[in-house]
Structures are given as structure tokens and as C-alpha cells.
What we know:
Helix content is 31%, strand content 20%. It has 824 residues and is α+β, with helices and mostly antiparallel strands. The chain folds into 4 domains: 5-359, Aminopeptidase (3-Layer(aba) Sandwich); 368-472, no CATH class; 489-580, no CATH class; 587-682 and 705-823, Class I glutamine amidotransferase (GATase) domain (Rossmann fold, 3-Layer(aba) Sandwich), CATH 3.40.50.880. Helix 6 crosses helix 12 (327-347).
Amino acid sequence: xxxxFTLFLLFCFxxxxxxxxxxxxxxxxxxxxIGTEFTRHHQVIDYFTHLAKNSPNLNFSxxxxxxxxxTLSYAVVSSEENLNKLDEIRINHLKQTGIxxxxxxSDIAVVWLSYNVHGNEASSTEAAMVTAxxxxxxxxxxxxxxxVIIDPSVNPDGRDRYVNWYNQVKATPYSPYxxxxxxxxxxxxxxxxxxxFDLNRDWMWATQVETQQRLKLYNQWMPHVHVDxxxxxxxxxxxxxxxxxxxxxxxxxxxxxxxxxxxxxNAEAFDEKSWTYFTRERFDLFYPSYGDTYPTYNGAxxxxxxxxxxxxxxxxxxxxxxxxxxxxxxxxxxxxxxxxTIEVSSENAAELSxxxxxxxxxxxxxxxxxLAGDEQKLKxxxxxxxxxxxxxxxxxxxxxxxxxxxxxxRTSFEAENALVLPANQPRAKMLKVLFExxxxxxxxxxxxxxxWNVALAYGVNVYTVSGEIDTKASTGEFSKLNxxxxxxGYISPWNSMxxxxxxxxxxxxxxxxxxxxxxxxxxxxSYQRGSLVITKTNxxxxxxxxxxxxxxxxxxxxxxxxxxxxxxxxxxxxxPDIKKIHxxxxxxxxxxxxxxxxxxxxxYFFEQELNxxxxxxxxxxxxxxDLEDYDALVLxxxxxxxxxxxxxxxxxxxxxxxxxxxxxxxxxxxxFEGKKGFGLKKLKTEKDSTEVNLTPYAERExxxxxxxxxxxxxxxxxxxxxxxxxxYEDSYASLKTSSAAYPYLKKGYNVAYLKDSAxxxxxxxxxxxxxxxxxxxxxxxxxxGRGSIIYMxxxxxxxxxxxxxxxxxVNALFMVNNRSQTFR
Length: 824
């Protein structure tokens, strides 16, 4: 049969249009107009699956699961030709950064759009579906030289928490009145993920499973442009780039200029619709763990877009500006800004590619960052580097000379098995941000913390070193302990979270563990306070030896077997100064009044890091529980003024006196401030209350920064003879996120404290705040009868990234005044 080319073309033409006609809009697929209902996560997945089946311009895949087993997904949208060679495009793009070997040029822009990182900022996921449909049906012109990656919901657990609640309580038809229940979310709200973390502040620290899985995908693409879609208060219209000051100094002129170019293009589109917006306010580019800054420090044009609404808006709400803000409006605005951003990127694809390549060219003044310190802490830090694909090896030199970022300008230091990171690797600018001594601020008016030095956060030293360093790929296999028949017991040091996890697992196995409160030397090896002593005398299990050794191997902690309990100096194994660690029954308060972020970080710590059971108790139920069922009560940061009235506080005090223990974090300390029986006093200031404030109105916001501490790091003195500080040196770098200050305890133990003029290591602190916190408490213990209350002014669990502070919390649980209900 003769081939009919005309018929073939007609067949292709009609076949293509038949495929296009089979693509349903979100309204057609879901059965309602977008913006008149909130779409549940599984329906969003179903719709993107539909697009992928029916459009040659969209691929849809999963990149993981959330804690609640919801799918994390992404769509790749581009021309059919580009999708057919997608891996080639991706690798050529990575070659420009040096992440992939070889040289390549590219004129294809890579744009990544992230939606719904905060679950109750729910309009953006609706917009993601509309944007994807627009691209594959109407905006094919943008796809010829652009690859668009769409993550429709970064936080599915939070989104469904919000959507399910809203669908349960909303009126029909919805009520636009702000007082209506549908505009007032209950605790903890839909903003955070399962563990109540703010995922928009987790990009760098990658503590959460959503972030960890997303970064694997992100690092395979490294987009030119990244937009993080958000919502703000109902009375603010729409925010887009350019960002506010301060800009971090590693951000290039091109990145700033291109943000402005995108902002102007967005403005033209919004002006045409007479939609209001603002730029260059509130949202700066400084703290490195945001969805705009992390991409920016990795070469992208990183931006935050904020639509009015958030969890208060529902399907529609009356604003204070006398108009009704609807979900339909909110979706349209996000669709417009997203498409506008893609347009600018497509029009400037070649320039984006060229400047992106330039961003990754480095000329550092030195060759390596070297991180030296405790082996366990370096192991944990290496896992952070793995999440971001940083290149590192381990030093084989006994010592090196370098410049200590905090300390001597030129010094020798022990370097065997130190982490060595090349300063000229692809993501070097991000490393510079992470390790700089004191980030430079153009203004103290910032949106978040102003210091985050990774070496201080992990409790190690960082040096810059020039010249070659001999290295190896790893520290080698963990050396397992050989079992010996004549062993009387085992000793483990105590100075890292690995040892905390080791202890928690031994207690789970019902192994009796003791800790020394005094140093000792046995078989010519020295052990410091807190070291764990595990003897056969106290443990009669048949598999005792193998269980202890296997557990030490699991956490790769040093374990020494000993044939005698007689010390060369210090305490012997039978001394009362080596005290039993009783398993603790721990209650953690949650609910109204509690900071959901603080509770979430504690909850996550127990379940995912320490692996130790807790009972979470609601503030609604606290008055009816029997505290005698618990050994310790943890109060996350929060405002408990309505919970701890005189009668409740008296009951709590009685429980403590009978042997209970309270651990109060950050703002929770105000519960006990100035209260009878508690040693926490309000700090008196020298200010004259009659002083008249003549500061001009326009300058008062800046004036208030004098009393602020926006996430600054201070060196504090530590009494490491106290059980709360076992495993620490006599100084500690503490992250202080507020200027809250308390004087030293007169009757109690001032375990960590600021003395005289507070020594600021990094970050912003106003002059009045510095004066206020001088000679103030950081961590302390007060004894009440047989029990204790532990005050932690600085929250060591803040966002779960201040790794070096976590052992203080473990000490508070197990080392300080460790008692059991059995002996009350």
C-alpha cells in the first residue's frame, strides 16, 4: 500500500488535538470551581496524575513520603522535545556549576515553583493546579526554552490538617465574619508539618523528612529561579521581589537586579488588573535556611511571594480594609505571579544560564575549611554535609596550622581525623555563609536570627588552612570491642548525643547504668564526670555482655571493658558518687499556651533522635492528671499564665518537693518569675520610668532594636562539675533568640551564665539588650525539697539545629537529681 503522507499529517494533527482536548481543567476534573472549595491532598495528586497521562508536556513523579505517609510529588513541565532529553538538559545544567564534570553551555532556564510549605497557607496548592493546566494548554510558548518544576505541596500533612479542620467547621455558605469559627484555627494550626516544625526554616538544617527528601531532588537540578509561595495576614495585599534589606554580601549584583526585573514584570501584570502589592519590605535575604535564601546562596534567584490570607481567610473573609478577600482572588494572584515569573525567565534564559555559571567560579583566599573536635560531633556534622552534597574528607595529619575563625589568627591544632572541606568546591559560597564569624548586617531590622555558625552549633572548631592536606575518604570502620570473660564491667565517656542515645537504648533494654559524679582513673585511663559505668554486679542478664557491646557498636561510642572496679585515683565502682540512672517517666506539656514550635522540637527529639518514650499531656487536661505518675515534667516555651494559677502552681510545687522534676524552657520561665517558693526573680533595670520618649515616630522601629537580640551567639561560662553540664567544657557557645534575662539564682546552682559584659561571638544584639543580659542566668537548677526545677533561659531545642546544646537537655532528664517514683 502506498504511504499517504497527507493522511499521516492529518492523523497526527487530529491525534494531538484529541489528546489536548482530553486534558481536563481543575474545575472539570474536581467538579467545582477552584477557589470555592479546598482541595484535599490526594485529589491534588490525582489531578497532576491526570495531566501527566494526557499531556506530552508534563511528567509527574514522587520524591518521597511524609511522616503521615502522604506523597511528596513534583511535576516537570516543558516542551515535548525537552522532556524527551530531560536528563541531558539536567546534566548540562549541572556542568555549569561544576557539580557534574565537563563543560557545557545551555540556553534553557530552570524554574522551580514551591507551593504550600506552610499548610494553612493553602491557596498556593490550588494555584499550582491552575498554573500547571495553563502551561500545558495555553502557554506552550514558554516551554520551548524553559523547564518548570512544580512542587504542588511541600507540606501535605500540614495542609490536610488545615483543610480537614476547615471543611469540618465552616458554615454553608461560608461566613466572611472574622469572629466565625472557620477563621480561628485551634492549636497547633495547619502551618507546621507533622512534628510541628516550620519547614520554611528547615532548608539548611534538614531535620525533617520532607526537607531531606526534597533536597535530594533539588540538588539534582539546582534551578536558576526558585519561588516559594506563601500567605500573610488578611490585611496585607500581595508581596513579591525585590526583597528587603539586609542582603547577605555573597548575593551578587545580578541576583539583586534580576529580582527587580522579575518584580517589575509582576507589577505590570498586577497593574493591568488593578491588584495592589508591595515590594522591598519585611522579607529580607539573610538567614540561610529559608526557601528563598537557600536557593539564593546556591546561585538561584530565590524569592518569596506572599498573598494575603493564610489560615484566617478560609473561603472568604472581611478584611479591615472593608472588602472581602476570597480564595478565588488569592488563587488568581498566585497564578498570575507564577506565570509572570516563568515569562521573565524564558525571555532571559541565556543570561540566567551565563550568570548562574559565573556564580560558581571561586577564588578563595585559602584552600580548606578544617573542622576539628570530638569525633562523635564530627560524625553528626558530616551527615549534615551529606544532605547538601558537600565534598569532604578526613585529615591524616597529626596537626595542622591554620586560622581559627573564633580565636587565634594563626595557630597549630590537632587534626587527625578532622573534617576537611575544599574551599573551592561548587557550593563554596554557601559554605562561606555557614562558617563566617559574624555576618555583616546593613540594618538590624531583620526577619529572623542573624547568626548560625555551624561549627559553634555542633560544638567543634573551624579553621581556614592554606596548602595541601593529606586526607583519606573516611575515618575507617568502627573498632568493635572484643568480649572478655574476666570483665567486671564497662565504661563509656559522656560528651555527645551519641552517648545520650546509647544510654536511652540501654535503659530500654533494662540494663542498670550508673554515672560518675567525680572524675576517676582506672587501669591508667581517665574518665570525666558523667561517664557511664555498667557493671555485671548490677546486671545479671545472661546476654549482658553481648547486649552492651552491640548497643555501643550501634551508636559507635567508645566502650572500655575493665577487669577491676578499683581505681588508680578518684572513685571506685562501689562509691556512692557513682549514682544509678533511673529510667524516667516523662510528661511533656502541649496545647493552648504552649509554643507549637517548641513542643514540636521536643516531641521530635524524643521520637526521632533520643528514641525515648514520653507522655504528651494537653494543657486542657493538666489539672486532672496525677503528677505522681511521672518523674519529670517538661514545659516547652510558652505562656502558661492562665494554666498555672496559684492553686495549680502550689500543687506543682508540692509534687516537686516530693521528688519531681520540672524542666522549663525559654518563655516558660516567666511562669515562675517572682512566684513564692521559686528562686527566679525579675531582672531590675536602671531605666528611669519617668523618662520621656522623644524619639521621632518614623525612627521608633529602629530604636526598638536597641533592646533586641535577634538570634545572636554568646560565649557563656559553665560549671561543668554540676550534672546539668556533664560532658561540657568550662565555656559554651549559646544561641540566644531574645533579650529575656534573669539574675543569678541566690538559692540554687548557676550552671551556665553570662558574666560582666556579655561576650557576643556573632549576630545582632542591641546595646540595651547587651547591658541587660550581663551577669544573667542561662541554665540553672533550683532544689525544692527532694526535687528540682531546671531553668533553661536559652532554648537548646530551637529548630533542632543547635546540636551542641542537646546534651544539656539529656543531662536535665537523666543526670540532674535523678530519682524514681519507687523511692519517693
